[in-house]
Design a protein that fits this description.
Order of helices and strands: HHHHHEEHHHHHEEHHHHHHHHH
Distance between the termini: 34 Å
CATH class: Mainly Alpha
Number of domains: 1
Largest sheet: 2 strands, antiparallel
Helix content: 55-70%
Strand content: under 5%
Shape: globular
CATH topology: Cytochrome C Oxidase, Chain A
CATH superfamily: Cytochrome c oxidase-like, subunit I domain
């Protein structure tokens, strides 16, 4: 497929056809990458909100164990298998924990970061009229949507939804209630959605780049999505196989993961031959789930790089070092998975190997973070709302990364494994890290998607309380974890060593509820700005990358004429340009 053929057809004829499409083809079952990106983004934001609500219910139980919910309306929403007189049952707490993790990762952050921002921005940034396979793109979204609906529907099946954690460890997951089956089927839909999407991204980036757009002229966001797509493509098939095997164990009474002699409630389990290995699931799961961490963080790094370059008005420091680091990071993410499994009886030789590779994989992360911090040096920084979220990402991700190092070492992990320290570490990477970067992206590309600007003061009213309270939620977890308080405890007060830190649960829960209130300005701003926000011009941020040469919002086919690229993505403060930015598609000095 030639690059020229990839562009010449859609700019004309397809734009005319789009006016004749009925509503359901144009906005619901659309094959336009921009509509699909917005579908992904809005659906992902809704799932993030739902997953956050589950967490707030859990925080009530942790702060005030055994006490009824103070809002009768909320208590009345749940049946007697979930709450009795507003008091949460342990089984329901486990369900909330399992589904909070599943929803936030697989239905919230990844679809928003890859499906939303990737779909909308990548074709625009490479000068393409659409994704390489538009119908596969549509199918990818609808598989994700069906998987999400199955996950939500599992709350209403007998026995409730999955309650074996977001990791779904056997043998518990094999003998759990029918909600676990729904979880596995829903996961199969999500996996196939990601596989279709990743194939589409790789083909699009390789084949549909605009003339002149070599790989080392790609914006860093495109590189991040490119590597992320390879991670999804290579890491998800093992989990797909594992999900099918676990379904076989549950429905056909095979024993891939069930050991011989398993005793449940004092009696040997009947109907299974045994001979399986629960650790096999852990290996297959973490072979996906560790690269999955980088599936979460790499698009976030890409967004932050775009926002920092634009708001410092200078080129990114070490552009090629960033690219080499992100490629190396992707490669290394496949050979560190068993550092999640130090306590499974691993030999010293293997644990030494995974310790070394885990320390090595921290190096490219440090390079990426360092280059972004150095990009601020000497910059004429504009403290826009996207920039505030991007700047907050840097120390938050730094805390998340540094606190992960003790977990990568066998000796310290023995004490910290499965404690709240792990929860704090992971959430610093994903919540104030990735989610802050996603908010930066929403504020940054909102004018391109809608043609309107979000309200600045409402954005700052969203940012500052969010920054304060999100640290109030997760920072105390490190103290609890070092005190030995385990994760997934329904009632921490039942354990003597957890009682001295119980006051921190109250602090974290109050911070979580205030963090929820802090999202109201964002919700108001988002919907108000769609209809009544100040109209934005084509390039309101005075940016250099190709998406800002398209109209706002872009028409079907994206560009009024085929863009041609003449230079790198971050030509800010160039001595050859009269103004402080020089767009990639502008041939002459501006």
């Amino acid at each position: 497929m030639s690059q020229t053929n990839g562009h010449s057809h859609p700019h004309g004829a397809a734009g005319h056809d789009s006016h004749e499409l009925p509503f359901w083809r144009k906005y619901i079952f659309s094959v336009d990458h921009k509509v699909i990106g917005i579908q992904y983004a809005v659906t992902g934001l809704l799932f993030l909100f739902f997953g956050f609500c589950l967490m707030m219910l859990m925080r009530w139980q942790l702060a005030y164990p055994g006490q009824p919910l103070p809002v009768p309306f909320l208590a009345n929403l749940f049946n007697e298998t979930q709450m009795i007189s507003g008091i949460m049952l342990p089984e329901f707490y486990n369900q909330l924990g399992a589904m909070h993790g599943t929803i936030m990762i697989f239905l919230g952050v990844v679809p928003l970061a890859v499906g939303g921002f990737g779909n909308f921005v990548v074709p625009l940034q490479i000068g393409a009229p659409d994704m390489a396979f538009p119908k596969l793109n549509m199918m990818s979204y609808w598989l994700y949507f069906i998987g999400g609906i199955l996950m939500l529907a599992s709350f209403f099946v007998p026995g409730g939804t999955a309650q074996s954690g977001w990791t779904s460890y056997p043998p518990l997951s094999v003998i759990a209630s029918s909600g676990q089956t729904w979880w596995l089927v829903g996961m199969a839909f999500l996996i196939n959605s990601s596989l279709l999407g990743s194939i589409n991204f790789i083909t699009t980036i390789v084949q549909l780049r605009a003339p002149g757009l070599s790989f080392f002229r790609l914006p860093f966001f495109v590189w991040a999505q490119f590597v992320t797509s390879f991670l999804l493509l290579l890491a998800f098939p093992p989990l797909m196989g594992a999900a099918v095997l676990q379904l076989m164990d549950r429905l056909a009474h095979t024993s891939f993961f069930l050991p011989t002699g398993l005793v449940v409630n004092g009696a040997p389990i009947a109907g299974y031959s045994g001979g399986g290995n629960p650790l096999l699931w852990q290996h297959l799961f973490w072979f996906l789930a560790h690269p999955e961490v980088y599936v979460l963080i790499l698009p976030a790094m890409g967004i932050v790089a775009e926002v920092i370059a634009n708001n410092t008005r200078k080129p990114l420091y070490g552009y090629k070092a960033l690219i080499y680091s992100v490629v190396f990071l992707g490669f290394m993410s496949f050979i560190v998975w068993a550092h999640h499994m130090y306590l499974t009886g691993m030999g010293t030789g293997m644990s030494a190997f995974f310790q070394v590779t885990t320390m090595i994989i921290s190096i490219p992360s440090v390079i990426i973070l360092t280059t972004m911090i150095l990009s601020l040096w000497g910059g004429a920084i504009r403290f826009t709302v996207p920039m505030l979220f991007a700047l907050a990402f840097l120390p938050m991700f730094g805390i998340g990364g540094l606190t992960g190092l003790p977990l990568g070492l066998n000796a310290s992990d023995i004490h910290l494994h499965d404690t709240y320290y792990v929860i704090g570490h992971f959430h610093y990477v994903v919540a104030p890290g990735t989610i802050f970067a996603l908010f930066a992206g929403v504020y940054y590309w909102f004018p391109k998607a809608t043609g309107r600007q979000m309200v600045g003061w409402l954005g700052k009213l969203h940012f500052w309380p969010s920054l304060i309270f999100i640290n109030g939620v997760f920072m105390p977890m490190f103290i609890q974890g070092m005190a030995g308080v385990q994760r997934r405890l329904y009632d921490p007060m039942q354990y003597a060593h957890a009682q001295p830190t119980q006051v921190l649960n109250v602090v974290m829960s109050v911070s979580a509820w205030l963090l929820g209130l802090a999202q109201i300005p964002f919700i108001v701003n988002f919907f108000y700005s769609i209809f009544w926000g100040r109209k934005a011009d084509q390039n309101p941020w005075q940016a250099t990358t190709l998406e800002w040469t398209a109209p706002s919002p872009p028409p079907h086919g994206n560009f009024t004429s085929e863009p041609v690229v003449y230079r790198g993505p971050y030509e800010y403060a160039s001595p050859d340009s009269k103004s402080d930015f020089w767009p990639q598609a502008m041939k002459e000095k501006n």
